[in-house]
Amino acid sequence: MRIILSIIAVLLAVPRYSGDERLPLIRATPEIRALPYVPAGGWPARVGALRPIGGVTLTSPTPAFGGFSGIALRDGRITLLSDGGNIVRFAIAGGRVIDPSGHVLRAGPGTGWTRSDRDSESIALDPATGTAWIGFENNNEIWRYAADFGRAMGRAQPAAMRDWATNQGVESLTRLADGRFVAIAERKPNRRTRHAVLFSGDPTRADTRIARFLFVPPERYDPSDAATLPNGDLLILTRRFRFPFDFSAKLVRVPRDSIRAGAQVAGRVIATLRAPLVDENCEGLAITRERGRTIVWIVTDNDAMPWRPTYLLKFALDG
Length: 319
Description:
The chain has 319 residues and is mainly beta. It is built from one helix and 22 strands. The strands form five sheets. Strands 1-2-22-21-20 form a five-stranded antiparallel sheet, with no helix packed on it. It has a five-stranded mixed sheet with strand order 11-12-13-14-18, with no helix packed on it. Strands 3-4-5-6 form a four-stranded antiparallel sheet, with no helix packed on it. It is globular and about 45 Å long. 39% of the residues are buried.
């Protein structure tokens, strides 16, 4: 009886946990379906410097699917990174998703219980080894992971990024062909410019040198991702949101030689994506080569709202 009374006393004295729910985690073998996406009126022949190849709407019954902020491709497989530390990998053949796999970033900032701990917004892959670098926006940290995401191999909170705003920090990360990296903040230091840094090598190494510069996005647009073109230029995806659910995006091409310490870089808009072509939150950008063509991949973020679609779009870049 004394034991029972003691248990009751503890239950009465200790309040029940009422904090945030654990963020959903992706399954190791998620079910993913791809349905053809064709905008109202069909695909135009061109969208600025882009020629549409096609698109799909990705769906899954698992609650952890969606919210994709980054995309990378290697050996014919697509890697999608969510803003909650979930990763899915798959190939697409004949309009079908082939061999899907799910991965969870067990190591990262904080405990990993909430989305704010694992606010993973950007990804870069080493094409030779599959090593992954991931930018965490809330903490303004960059982590390096093994190719299977099973373990972290390095982490850094660069001094040049410590004053970047929380939840508006490192939104874009790309690895240049020569091994350097570029990271760009979503917002700040003011309405017209965005913080950016150029790393001389692996951002997680203590001996890597860092140079600050500023990116100037199109008016009222924010950078959401970046990728490296075959000639070394940067392609930066910028997006704009207007209440309640009005999205548009602009792709900005930045010459590689303009990226240097202290520079203020604007680039040139080469394509605009808006309704009825795409009326969603364009977040992830990747570049590949196919049969001599430069291919631009874009994935949208449904912001963990299951009634909103996740689009995977494919374009060829002219010039």
